[in-house]
Amino acid sequence: MTAETTTGTIEATGSCCSPTGSRHGGAAGAEPSGTTSVYLVKGMTCGHCEGAVSEEISTIAGVTSVKAVAATGQVTVVSAAPLEEAAVRAAVDEAGYELAGKA
Q: Could you tell me which residue ranges the HMA domain spans (predicted)?
């Protein structure tokens, strides 16, 4: 189970994905551009946890994509520029979890 949040506008179809499951406007499987960081978050156990962490981190300025995986505790964040770890820590704390650091 994973939760992923992508910020930006959704195309007129009302869906962020095409019928084939790929993102509109890009090649299937293409990663968003920017800086990718992977963090380790303690305490996530389910999809609700993943969603809460993803939602809070996605509010940080410059974040374009967040993918949280409870099974591994890893949270992958794509942003326009490198993020301050303090901002990520504050977002994770707000969601009710603990940031252990970068994975």
A: 35-100
How distant, in Å, are the alpha carbons of 2, 8, 21 from that of 18?
19, 16, 5
CB 66 within 8 A of CB 59: no
Average pLDDT, rounded, for the chain: 81
CA distance 11 to 74: 29
Domains of the chain: 2-102 (3.30.70.100)
Dihedral angle computed from the Cα positions of residues 90, 79, 6 and 31, in that order, rounded to the nearest 10 degrees: -140
Q: Roughly what angle, to the nearest 10 degrees, separates helices 85-95 and 47-57?
A: 140
Asked if residue 64 lies in contact with residue 8, where contact means CB atoms within 8 angstroms, the answer is yes
The alpha-carbon radius of gyration of the chain (Å, integer) is: 14
